[in-house]
Design goal:
- With 234 residues, the protein is mainly α.
- Strand 3 and strand 4 form a beta hairpin.
- The chain folds into two domains: 76 residues, Glutaredoxin (3-Layer(aba) Sandwich); 135 residues, Glutathione S-transferase Yfyf (Class Pi), Chain A, domain 2, CATH 1.20.1050.
- Helix 1 packs parallel to helix 3 and helix 5 packs antiparallel against helix 6.
- The chain is globular.
- Strands 2-1-3-4 form a four-stranded mixed sheet, with helices on one face.
- The structure holds glutathione.
- Glutathione binds next to loops.
- This is GST N-terminal domain-containing protein.
Length: 234
């Protein structure tokens, strides 16, 4: 390949991904649920191909090349693009209020859950670990309350998923639910089986059993191995 070439599907979608990456799994699951044919290019993050900067100068996965040659980056941008391009898959509601409520749920994860997975793994100091664990538990209580509110709404259909059935919330967040595996392994973190976490635990159990999740779920050991890089004392 010459220095200005990279692999892609002519007139089709090309998804640059890595199967252990929770962000890339968002894009994979969006394509899967919308049943959009695409070429998958697995990027070895430890040994990235030289041409990858032509696709994403930030050198991160996922990235998407569309049939028109546009390159999209950022997992949620890609997932939303797939949802918008394929309205028949009903990944996102057409109702603005329902979309806003879903965005709030994803925002809750972005501020109260996802960063704390990494902070707990990265903290060597026990006190700091405990502080971050408590913040994560506080976030999970909020997430549980939000799930309970949603399940009572008509669009929540009593759960167990955000829209009753598997949809955009699970596409966006299930891979981060999967990160509780390395968190339990390295830091002994678990979500208590008490009332305040009951909704999150119900949602998580439904996710773990869903074929839409297991299809792209990495095996526990490779995921644990991949996350070792975030744990300075491991
Ligand atoms: N905000 C980005 C984050 C993507 C991201 O951080 N991906 C990681 C892998 S999970 C990556 O490619 N890191 C570059 C590297 O490992 O060199 C998104 O949502 O797509």
């Amino acid at each position: 390949m010459s220095t200005n070439e990279y692999p892609y599907e002519e007139n089709g979608y090309t998804l640059y991904s890595n199967r252990l990456c929770p962000y890339a799994q968002r894009a994979l699951r969006a394509f899967d649920i919308a049943q959009v044919p695409h070429k998958l290019v697995e990027i070895d993050l430890k040994n990235k191909p030289e041409w990858y900067h032509l696709v994403n100068p930030q050198l991160k996965v996922p990235a998407l090349r569309t049939p028109s040659g546009a390159i999209l980056i950022e997992s949620l941008v890609i997932a939303e693009f797939v949802a918008d391009q394929n309205p028949e898959a009903h990944l996102l509601s057409a109702d603005a209020t329902e979309r806003a409520q879903l965005r709030l749920f994803i925002e809750l994860f972005a501020t109260r859950y996802n960063p704390y997975i990494y902070r707990i793994l990265m903290a060597v100091d026990k006190e700091e670990q405990e502080k971050h664990k408590q913040t994560l538990l506080d976030g999970l209580k909020e997430i549980s309350k939000e799930l309970e509110r949603q399940w009572k709404r008509p669009s929540g259909k009593n759960g167990p998923f955000w829209y009753g059935q598997w949809g955009y919330a699970e596409v966006a967040q299930s891979s981060f639910v999967g990160l509780l595996v390395p968190l339990a392994h390295y830091r002994g973190f678990s979500v208590p089986e008490t009332k305040e976490f009951a909704a999150f635990n119900r949602w998580r159990q439904a996710i773990l059993q869903a074929p839409e999740f297991t299809k792209f779920k990495p095996e526990d050991q490779p995921l644990i191995d991949a996350y070792k890089k975030f744990v300075p004392d491991a």
